[in-house]
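## Example record

The block below lists the input lines for one assembly entry, exactly as stored, with component labels intact.
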Amino acid sequence: MANYTESIEKLIERLIKLPGIGRRSADRIIGYILDADLSEIKLLSEAISRMKENVRVCRICHNLSEEELCKICRDPRRRQDIICIVEKHSDVTAIEKAGTFDGVYHVLMGSISPLEGRGPADLKIESLLKRIKENHIKEIIIATDADTEGETTALYLTKIIKPLGVTLSRIGLGLPVGSNLEYADADTLSKSLESRRAI
Amino acid sequence: MANYTESIEKLIERLIKLPGIGRRSADRIIGYILDADLSEIKLLSEAISRMKENVRVCRICHNLSEEELCKICRDPRRRQDIICIVEKHSDVTAIEKAGTFDGVYHVLMGSISPLEGRGPADLKIESLLKRIKENHIKEIIIATDADTEGETTALYLTKIIKPLGVTLSRIGLGLPVGSNLEYADADTLSKSLESRRAI
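Predicted structure tokens for the full assembly:
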């Protein structure tokens, strides 16, 4: 684009590195920035650098935090002896939305995937084991995804946590609430039958 | 999203104001920023504020510029007595890409659209007339879009520029180069017949 100025070209180069932003969307964002008030664009620019500077991961559970310990680890009303293990930050958000879990979390920062070359050493497992041993943890819930990587990770975790003598469970897999049995896939149905409960 | 920290929420609020960015894309951009190096994110944040601070419009033609006059108006090889009138900055880019025009531009910053409440007073027409009168302009090419707004604008400009006694033309409307006649719409075909040339 011969007509753009140098500062615009430089910004476009940066914008197209962002996920989901191509040349066309970058052009539209440039147009927006050119039209907007300087003060508003200053706030956007500051919000980006401030977010990057302020946000880190919790020293204990690796959840997102702006302080050494995250809100959940700092909360005296949460049971510190029950840990729910999840793959990523957004899983914490999802479970918090459900609002029924009153323990703390451990974010693995990924899952085991031999296909993509991610093994146990790439996950936050060492700090998890240290936590279980040093903090009188009573119960562990494995809440990794229900896909191949999540199940592989859950199997691996079961193997290494079981010998430590804590109560260990996997979240229930089965029919989603509100869904129709006839549309459920075969794997979900067999998991659902396996995890049946006496009534 | 209960789990995001304050700085993240603030940034998301700003991001979703950008065109084409919804909550989902904002989430993905947040993930990218969290994973990226601090130095890279600093450069992004700076590129945004620097672009907004540096870029303004050329005092003469209203094209984008980082100095008082844009590159084209400053270029001594360009003929300063032929003006091509376009609606917006990206039109300058398009014509510069073609690479055959050696005059200068005048960016109207919009088009006349009674439906959207934009009249001649909303466009940079006053400065255009001043330019024509004061700078010995010999020729004017009206290169507004071939849609209703563009045609309305071209008609209006013709009416006010014609009395000034400069050579005035409208860019050729017709079959796009490389296109098939059988797929052309009726309006394009009749324009194409109207603007036929003797061979």
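Residues 38-54 of chain A form the longest helix (17 residues). The domain at 6-54 of chain A is CATH 1.10.8.420 (Helicase, Ruva Protein; domain 3).
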